[in-house]
Fold these 2 entries.
Entry 1:
Amino acid sequence: MTLQKALTTTLVLGGLATGSVWAYKHYRHEDFFAGNQNSKSLFENAKYTDSNGSTVATPMVDFEKAATKASPAVVHIKTVMRAQRGATAQIPDQLRDFFGDGFGDEFGGGGSRQAPAQRASGSGVLITADGYIVTNNHVVADATELTVTLNNKKDFRAKVVGTDPSTDLAVIKIEGKDLPYLRFTNSDDVHLGQWVLAIGYPLNLETTVTSGIVSAKARNIGINSRNSRAAIESFIQTDAAVNPGNSGGALVNTEGDLIGINSAIASPTGSYAGYAYAIPSNLAQRVANDIIKYGSAKRAYLGISFPNDQLSEEERTKNNIKEGKGVYVMEVAGGSAAAEAGIRKGDFITALNGAEINSGTELMGKVGALRPGDKIDITYSRDNAEKTVTATLKGNAGAYAASEGKAPSANQLGATFENLGADDAAQLNLRAGVVVKDLGDGILSDQTRIREGFIITKVNGRSVGSVEQLNEALQRSGNSALITGVYPNNPREEYQYALNDLNR
């Protein structure tokens, strides 16, 4: 069946998750930088009203117990990243505006200079008394030096135990004993409207606690797909204030129990604008325990693909996607856990282990919190009859049948391409690549926000250095592909674009 415009998300479950790099400008990890800002514009008095409309000094919920319990276990992580040889630091216009004209002068007035070692700041949560800390992958990625400062101001050198880009989680370790720590609690018990606290070290401040409510669950914002071909996202969305530096910090309930790890914010500017996103504790606990025990996360797969949750009614009708309760199964991979359990194309998955499922993101989050070998009860509807089967999850997704139609090629992407010249490649510190030229109507413009001049360096994680290699890589991709590359004005920043419907 022909699929339109990035229709499917292939679950944990197997293959590429949809989501394009446009999300980077709207959703961003909030880890790396703080500066002095005008206090008059930043700090305003807050007021609360009771049910009669009278102004009161504080909200009716008492957060003191939770803050007192959780704050000692939340740590400040400072990182050093070695600058690449020959690299220059490009200074965005908004940062020059942020600091004033003097900022540009410091960099020679030209907006760039030889990049020094980079320093960044984030947060983490102690989860054992002997010093294991869970944080975000993006906080510690590429770090050459890690310093952890506890709530009591004591410093420790830390080492990375393991990372998992697909969930944006990492575990680091300090040497200590009898350290304060938090236990994970069941994030499935989190409900909309519940009061929560975000605890971390935003903007290089000391321990900071903010409050809010859970405004949504099982959110997929596409941000982890920049670093993983099989990203898992099922975020808890809150309106607790989260800013740069909060990454990796704790989201706790009013009992001070750990329900999530803060990871991203929705913002057009990079600072808090109303919504923050936390990795649910069930997923974070599974990944952290795997990293501590095995050194890496053990991924479980069900082996189905399902429609993007955001599809319009018109797109569903065009592609013969049925309406119904639960998650519509578009494809089942041969040899997968789903296939062996008897799940078929056209079924609606309505519950997992008795818990109702209403979206593909919910399904992804629940399976992502499990391990290969775990058994899961799947309730599904077929021909208006409901049935429950038990599936044993696997460590691979199985194989999807070849899509109808001819093998995809670069010509079908809606652009022309040319090999990156050797001199240009050397100047950009790239080995090779393929330049996107003359972008017109087609898959690239329909499914992504790619711009002309983009240099494709990889397809599905494999390097491509010529148009011929690009064609070969696409032909091996089947119906979906993940292309990776850079823009020439910022060759150190990689972008990834997920493509679907390549066989149309």
Note: Residues 405-499 form a domain with the Pdz3 Domain fold (CATH 2.30.42.10).
Entry 2:
Amino acid sequence: MVQRIVEAAQIESLDQSAIPRLRMPERATVFAARAARLLQLADASNPISGYLHLMAALADAQQRVLTNFHAPMPSRESIELNQRHSMPIVPALTDARDPAWRDVLFMLLDDIDAAGALTPALVQLVVRLRTTDAAALDAQADAILSLRFAEIDPAAAPFIMAALQVVWTDLASRIDMKDVPYLDTPGVCPVCGSVPVASIVRVGGAYEGYRYVQCGLCATELHVVRAKCSNCDSTKGIAYHAMSAVDARDEDKTELARKAPLKAESCDECGTYRKIGYQDKAFDFEPYADDLASLTLDLLMGDAGYRRAAPHPWLWPEQPKDER
């Protein structure tokens, strides 16, 4: 079979109306697929194998909770208001956040607890989260969604984010994509207003060969032209980096990078990178899972002078303590 390579200029000139703008999350499988992929990637050679196993259990718990969870949908008036103002249709940063998200958090903790084999540190964390008051939990949710790093509790954040993900993925899975407005801000989810984690070039049907960035909160995927930086929209200074090519001979680097199922796409205009996976090279590729499991590639990109376009919601860096 001969593959047709589409050049960047050709991609930009395509009729954008023929390309599906959005790919809404598949409610019945979204977290289950993520859990399965995390387990695939959690082999003994992965430096965070144990953590990936824990996060796979958390994703499994998310799928079980999502099955019977239904958040209140936005009113028609709210939808039309957000459409007129080019705002996310169900914004995550809102004073009207459904308090049921905290119930979801406790259900996830119960599920993880029931799975057993918790480490002492994790047992303490579960107890601490269960006894944290509502205002403090909401404050943590606000800090996470606003990316206020200094205020985020890195140990608790993945579980809080997991609960928020259930709520907004539920909403996204039931929203009519025709209601989702176009936003003026590049690289922002038009459903919830959050930032993407990683991107995927999909295979099959209407999505064949197109790149989608996956929202880190609601799992909605937004089409972004492959010739552009998914963070700043620039078409200049785009480059691709792959772990398999790092130690290779110069004459082999290009070929190894071409075959890699996961790369880091860097942009010299904004100095950031975001990972991109190719489903034709790894059919089970799942942006959220593969991004989390490829910490070594993050270290490589940091050494090269690039910073992540957005943090992974399940892996927050420890912030330096104020020694004053």
Note: The longest helix spans residues 49-67.
